[in-house]
Specification:
Pfam families: GntR (PF00392), UTRA (PF07702). This is GntR family transcriptional regulator. By secondary structure, the protein is an alpha+beta fold. It is built from seven helices and eight strands, in the order αααββαβαββαβαββ. The relative contact order is 0.12.
Length: 256
Amino acid sequence: MPRPKHVAASDLRLPDALQPGRPKGDQLREILESVATEAGPGRLMPSERFLAEHFQVARGTVRQEVNRLVADGVLYRQHGTATFTAERQAAHIDMLTSFTEDMQARGVVPKTKVLHAEVESAGPRIAGRLNVPPGARVFRLERLRYVEDEPFAVERTNLSVDRFPGIELFDWETQSLHRTIEERWGVRPEWNDTAISAVLPNSNDAGLLGIEATQPCLIIEGTLHDQSGGVIEAGRSLYRADRYTVFTQARRSPAT
């Protein structure tokens, strides 16, 4: 993802004034959306003060329309004040596809930093999700994921060491977890129970992702199963909402 680049007001194709007879807010929103599209992702937008003075409108009107474009994903705020054109969102369409495979399929070179990779004793909750006895040995893996050198997600997952002996010995900064499980143990993901919710990151996760603690994120909690219904992994990961879109498809079953 390209880093934000400064765009001076003189570099932008702004009309000299708003047209009479049309709501000022509607015109301003259309202009800002057009400018954002033309400027490309990650570009610094003019300040609210500049826009208010340039178009001779109230500062509150500018803020209202900027807020609306932020909510629509056209713009985003950084450090509470500066406003940038939004980046193209990277989206996992298939929950069964690994991060590495998904990014490579999109022509993006993924990068991973391992934050934690140790064998631990399973507490009651993780034991229940993995369908193992409490106290069983589980491999806890935490990784910081990057897209084009920018932090994208903090992925946390747990796997049974009894089912995947030696899993802690692999280099998880360079290897795909799902691909390794399939190639080494012959286990292929078949279906996933997934719960998705919007949250604000804690200070530690916000620091890892390089975002403000006020920036919304998505918590994706899932249990991955193989064809026989056995549990492969149980994870709870945090994704930047400005970089991740979840697509779903629903179909009504025929009436019987």
